[in-house]
Design goal:
Length: 203
């Protein structure tokens, strides 16, 4: 066989192999990725960049494809809250909590973690809007549901966000419980330097 023809044949076969592998990998990812997950990942990127309108559009797109998608509901609640749309955020977290309570299986560890996070996020919302008794109730429910998930940021997150001793659900719940036990005139419920360290939870 002519050496030039052989060289071209080897080159073409190699290129075809690369193309087929790329198609296979893309197809496999598309088939194996649960409906709505791709849109939720896009929403998470917008959320981390504080582009809340873009995040809401992507989370809503995920819910059109897969109604009651946990990550989309949680993401939309956080985006509403971070953009100051408190009533919509509260409604989203409350709906997600109710949905999870009704649908969770005992062995659904991811779902249990999501429920704990939803309680925490709604608790933070109540906390920031002065509804401290409701906040305490949600923090307690979060800890009872899955204390490990809402324990607080790990070492890397604490270093990245310069919060070596961050607020945690447990610490805030203990503080609120102590303060709410005092007469109203002696309560000191707002700690801006600590409250600002509270981070929303999204499994």
């Amino acid at each position: 066989m002519n050496r030039e023809i052989l060289r071209r044949y080897v080159f073409l076969m190699g290129a075809a192999t690369v193309v087929m592998f790329a198609v296979w990998a893309f197809t496999r990812q598309a088939v194996e990725t649960p409906l709505g997950d791709y849109e939720v990942r896009q929403g998470d990127i917008f959320l981390s960049d504080e582009k809340y309108d873009g995040a809401l559009e992507r989370f809503t797109a995920a819910l059109v494809i897969m109604p009651d998608h946990r990550g989309a509901l949680m993401g939309r609640g956080i985006a509403y809250m971070q953009s100051g749309r408190i009533a919509e955020a509260e409604a989203e977290f409350t709906y997600l909590i109710g949905f999870l309570i009704k649908s969770l299986e005992p062995d659904d560890l991811t779902g249990i973690g999501t429920l704990a996070s939803a309680y925490t996020n709604r608790g933070i919302l109540y906390d920031r809007t002065g509804r401290y008794q409701k906040a305490l109730g949600d923090y307690i429910d979060a800890l009872k549901t899955d204390a490990e998930t809402v324990e607080g940021p790990g070492l890397i997150a604490r270093v990245l966000y310069a919060t070596p001793n961050p607020a945690t659900v447990r610490k805030r719940a203990i503080y609120l419980q102590k303060q709410l036990a005092l007469p109203p005139e002696k309560r000191f419920l707002r700690l801006p330097e600590k409250d600002d360290d509270q981070r929303m939870y999204k499994p």
